[in-house]
Hints:
The structure holds 2 protein chains of 2 kinds.
Chain A: H1 6-26, H2 30-55, H3 59-89
Chain B: H1 6-25, H2 28-55, E1 63-77, E2 82-93, H3 95-118, H4 124-146, H5 150-168, H6 175-206, H7 211-219, H8 230-245, H9 254-257, H10 263-272, H11 277-284, H12 286-290, H13 293-314, H14 320-340, H15 344-371, H16 389-403, H17 409-424, H18 426-451, H19 466-474, H20 491-498, H21 518-534, H22 548-553, H23 561-565, H24 574-601, H25 604-612, H26 614-621, H27 626-697, H28 705-725
Antiparallel strand pairs in B: 1-2
Helix pairs in contact in B: 1-2, 1-4, 2-3, 2-4, 3-4, 3-10, 3-15, 3-21, 4-5, 5-6, 5-10, 6-8, 8-11, 8-13, 10-15, 13-14, 13-18, 14-15, 14-17, 14-18, 15-16, 15-17, 15-21, 16-17, 16-18, 16-21, 17-18, 17-24, 18-24, 25-26
Amino acid sequence: MMPITPYHYLVLAAALFAIGLVGVMVRRNIIIVLMSIELMLNAVNINLAAFSYQLHDAAGQVFAIFIVAVAAAEAAVGLGIILAFFRNKETVNIDDMNIMRW
Amino acid sequence: MDYIWLIPLVPAAGAALNGLLGIRWFGRALAGALACAAVAVALGLSIWAFVGLVALPPDARVHDVVLAAWIPAIPLETAADIGMFSVNWTARLDPLAAIMLLVVTGVGFLIHVYATAYMLDEPRGGYARFFCYLNLFCFFMLVLVLAGNLLVLFVGWEGVGLCSYLLIGFWYEKNSAADAGKKAFLVNRIGDWGFLLGIFLVFFTFGSLDFREMATAVAAMPRERTGFGVLSAICILLFAGAAGKSAQIPLHIWLPDAMEGPMPASALIHAATMVTAGVYMVARNAVLFDHAPLVMQIVAVVGVLTALMAATIGLVQNDIKRVLAYSTVSQIGYMFLATGVGAFTAAVFHLMTHAFFKALLFLGCGSVIHAMAGQQDMQCMGGLRKYMPVTFSTMLIGAFAIAGIPPLSGFFSKDEILYRAFIGNRILWGIATATALLTALYMFRLMTLTFSGGYRGPQGSPLASPAAVAEAALHGARHPHDAHAHGEADRENHEVTHGPADLLREDHARPGPSEGSPAITGPLMALAVGVIVVGFFGMPEALGGTNAIERFLTPSFAGSAGVLTGHADAALSRVAALGLMLCSTLVSVAGILLARHVYLRNPEWPRQLAARWHGMYTFLLNKYYLDELYSATVVRGTIAAARGLFAFDRRVVDGAVGALRWLTLLASWLSHMFDKHVLDGLVKLVGWTAGRASFVVRRLQTGLVQNYALVIVLGLFAFLTVFLFAR
């Protein structure tokens, strides 16, 4: 059984971040996009926790907690915007969200 | 005596109460009583101060009360050196001021009492307003009298001028009264202009406006026997002010017109007190004038010429009040003659006796006019003696006094002046004596036409029948019922005020002229007693008197050579003095007898004389055409100058302004064009360029979130690539 090193955490976090990034880039359902953003945020959280563990510094975990709180707020705001948008446009397709341009 | 400053303030309080509350709320009785009480208190205080002053030794009879600082000490550069200049609100009681205090408050009180009855025809508000003005006048006159320096005196001076204006124009609805007030004010402005310049010159020369400091400084300077120095300049300027206030040639023209005012105001202001303020001011500065003999000569000549001219005009006037007005001008001329020959005490003495007998004559004349229901033309009077015995007898005393019949007051004072004039200059004495003859003549012309002979007013009643009134109005005569219209009542004006002449109300019909209430006759009798008594204070030594007035007043004029040398150097022998007295008495008696002879026995003589000397008569009747001369020169000149300046304004100044306007318009148009085409063009060019450029760039803004995300990620990759590999 091989020991779990920081590299494992970093690889996991990178994979998770990549999944989230691809989800943001390719999915058309805005709710999925929002969820992908959450994935990316949590990938960063994993990184923070891993380095905190390795360096024996609690600051990383504190940041992770902050990010969880900010992510919750962001999800709430984002879902509120989506809800308002849906009530107007009857859709959650991100390609229809193109009125904010020249 | 420390409370002398209260003397002016009590009437001021009366004026304030009557003015602020009385006009709206006080009844006639309260307003009149308040005003009389205020002056009575002032009179009591004056008597108290006088008694206190007499108790002092003659050399110490000066008392200063400094009420407050007016101008605090400021550094000042004068002609002499650099010193400190300050002016205080100083009340100064000295013999001269004490005499004036008694005259102003005493005569003023009697006139106030008289006015309570005389003004009863006024509406309630006007009644209180009148007494407010009268009290205000007393306040300012007492300030003037008590002033310890020129500036405070000037305050009183202007204040009495203001009250004079207010009272002349008291019936302000009437054009002639309003115009007369304006005329008085404007003519006085000319004199005050000189007075003010004189004050400036005093200030510049001595660095002080205090009378005593001025006198001390002047006493150290040489008398300007030859030439015209700074002292002469000061004196001539001050005399200009005095001539304006006291109606001397050439500024006398306002006083006869001032008779538009109510009778008590005329008696108080334009006969007894205010118009003599000029004499008082010259006497106040006796030392100063004494050091300018040239100006003294001018003063004497102006005085005697005014006396003569006014007496000749008074001889032909038919308006009873105007005769008295010219008589006042003439008598003040006497006073200036006295100051001009250095007889300051004689001037002040004459001022004092004149205040009594002229107030008496004016009040008696008011009584007559009241009884005649406003008629002022002596040709419509006559025979009033039996209707108005009190008025007649008191006025007769006044007339004897002004004519100079011994032993009445006017005799002593006028004789003193003639005596001093005789010593000074025989020509002046000759003119003055001729004037004395004329004085007796016009005065007894007035008395005869008014009181003797038969009644020439409308028959049965002194009041005209409607037809007579209508006819009189047609001929430009005064309305007999019109107590207020003293000017020429042309028919239009007349009817505006009173309605058509032939629609007169019937309730005017009442029995013949009669004596007024005790408030009218009381002051007359009191003044008559004054006229008799006052003279004895100045009984000359030649008659065995002591001339108490002169000795009392002398400290006030200490330092002027006229006082020092008057009797000692140039006194005539007793026989000569008595001869002069006899001479002036004979002249007066001759004048009286002539008047009786002409106007009573031969009433057609004056008409024949007037017809024969028609030019002369019209000349006198029209007051030497001086009003016309002034309106042709000064008034027309002023108007022409104003027109010229107006034209200058319109052509040159307005033209310049117009040109400036065109220039501004042109400049702004140019600026506008520059803005519109050059600056706006540039701005639009920038905007246009930006707009064009945006067509290219704005394609980037798709509005699609994932496009933006793609750009971000690509940028991230690019950044990472550079960061990781290209370093």
